[in-house]
Amino acid sequence: MAQISFRVDDDVKLSAEQTLDTIGLSMSSVLNVFLKTIAREKRIPFELTADPFYSASNIRYLEQKMEDYKNGKLKFTAHELIEE
Is the distance from CB of 74 to CB of 84 less than 8 angstroms? Predict the structure, then answer.
């Protein structure tokens, strides 16, 4: 049987161990399930995404709003955005 070693933040490890203890599972059993799922499904078994603020569609939206602002079509107040 192979052994895998990796580093993880102390707080993350402690929190995960506490959660797994409540569920009644060991870290080793959960990591084995995780790796078996990856091997079987040929994918990470959950969605990985970046911060949506930096998505291409949001950047385009923000660039358009800046253009509108520069062209006088958009004004800012202290609490809201007003489109004319």
Answer: yes
Q: Which residues are 76's β-sheet partners?
A: 81
Name the β-bridge partners of 83: 74
The amino acid that residue 67 corresponds to is: E
Under 8 Å between Cβ of 62 and 72? no
Task: Write down the pTM of the prediction.
Answer: 0.56
At 55, the amino acid letter reads S
Mean pLDDT by 10 residues, the chain (84 residues): 94 96 96 97 88 87 92 76 63
> CB–CB of 53/60 below 8 Å?
no
Cβ atoms of residues 83 and 74 within 8 Å: yes
Q: Which residues contact 47 (CB under 8 A, 6 or more apart)?
A: none
